[in-house]
Amino acid sequence: MFIILIIVLIVIILSSIRQINQYERGIKFTLGKFSKIMKPGWRIVLPIFQSYRKVDIRTKAVDVPEQDAITKDNVSVRINAVIYYKVFDASKAVLEVENFYFAVGQLAQTTMRNAVGSVSLDELLSERDKISTEICNIIDKATDPWGIKVENVELKDVSLPEEMKRVIARVAEAEREKQAVITKAKGEVEASENLAKAANLMSATPGAMHLRTLSTISDISSDQSNTIIFALPVEILKSFEGKSLSEGKVESIVKSINKKK
């Protein structure tokens, strides 16, 4: 009889052993009441009197399905996101909410629609990180009583209607044309300023205009189809410094220059 009792006790003890893995926590109930959180390892859970439930405390990624939302400026968009969260208090995740997986997903969908409705389309497209952070803070604050810590929220995609895509494309094209006109105008202003400086410098320097004229003639003389009419500058006559030039000599100088061309 004693041996049978020992065998029964051994069987009960062996059947009461439960294994809690390193990434899990066990919630033990005694006579239906929460008693303690079981750490990783082998733990005793007496049948009939006690029960337990495992909770995975690893970081979870929840893919929030696409949601239809309307922005602040009445533009219809479709958005989807992914949420990263983990359980920091296993007892609250079991006692305070029936199914925290489902609850977090539903809360994320509602928060996303509300957050998108409070911003304009331009803000949604240009400040996506800021909106993601705002959604993360709202969900994290709401899930604290459930023992859940929301680590990050990322907006994966923002889909626009085809009509709105064409409008945005036209706006972008108009903006590029505007920048091109502004850049061209700035270039013309800078060119005119540089030309004015060059004109002032050449007018103040003796012989500079003559040298510039000869340089220009040299540039265009490479094309044999061009006909060059060259006016003899006054500076050439002044360069002789008082030497008398008869009309015949002046004509001979002009002829010699034309022959060289």
What does this structure look like?
The protein folds into four domains: 2-56, no CATH class; 60-160, Tetrahydropterin Synthase, Chain A (2-Layer Sandwich); 163-204; 221-260, no CATH class. The protein is 52% helix and 24% strand. The model has no long low-confidence stretch (mean pLDDT 82). The protein has a three-stranded antiparallel sheet with strand order 3-2-5. The chain is an alpha+beta fold.
Biggest β-sheet strands, sense, barrel = 3 strands, antiparallel
| Sheet with most strands: strand arrangement | 3-2-5
Q: Number of domains in the coordinates?
A: 4
Describe the oligomeric state of these chains in a short phrase.
single chain
Strand and helix layout:
Blueprint lengths: L1 H15 E4 L3 E7 L2 E6 L2 E4 L5 E7 L3 E11 L5 E12 L2 H6 L4 H18 L3 H6 L1 H16 L4 E12 L2 H43 L3 H13 L13 H6 L7 H14 L1
Antiparallel strand pairs: 1-4, 2-3, 2-5, 6-7, 7-8
